[in-house]
Amino acid sequence: MKEIKRCSWAGNDPVYIQYHDYEWGIPVHNDTKLFEMLILEGFQAGLSWITILKKRNSFRDAFESWDYNKVASFTESDIGRLAENKNIVRNRLKIISAVKNARAFIDVIDKFGSFDNYIWGFTGYTTIRPMIPPRNWSEVPTRSTISDKMSKDLKQRGFSFVGTVICYSFMQAVGMVDDHMEGCFKCKR
To answer: Exactly one of 16, 36, 41, 168 is catalytic; which is it?
Structure first.
């Protein structure tokens, strides 16, 4: 049986392999899924992505299956409850940010019709692929001029934990950018 070649970051962890093979770099146009990924990327700041992926089901439960309308209505009591939840990242600032971001997310939907319409506008409603795929992980950027613009605009709209590196990771996660490496079976170049 021929071995499947993947991006080196996927390693051998089944959680990473599943994420790599079935999510990372695949275009997402569902607002609930976009909200989930934006919030998870914010929680990831300063941590490893595998930590977030392994807590993902707990995050889903804690944040009402990523129903941004419900998250936007979270109270100080809800924030306190989440800060005590040992199954998620209990960083109070990140929890407050998730609630704040849910409210800003709804404002964006009200203005643009969907978050999808708004966010994909940064890439001209298409997936960006480098002309030459990266050969190793060190060639993959951590930010871009588009993620810079996205970060600035999101912050102006009231979002937090949306720095340019987080935005670029979000873009990779939801398929706005396809950085699959040369030789990876998911590389489309």
So the answer is: 41
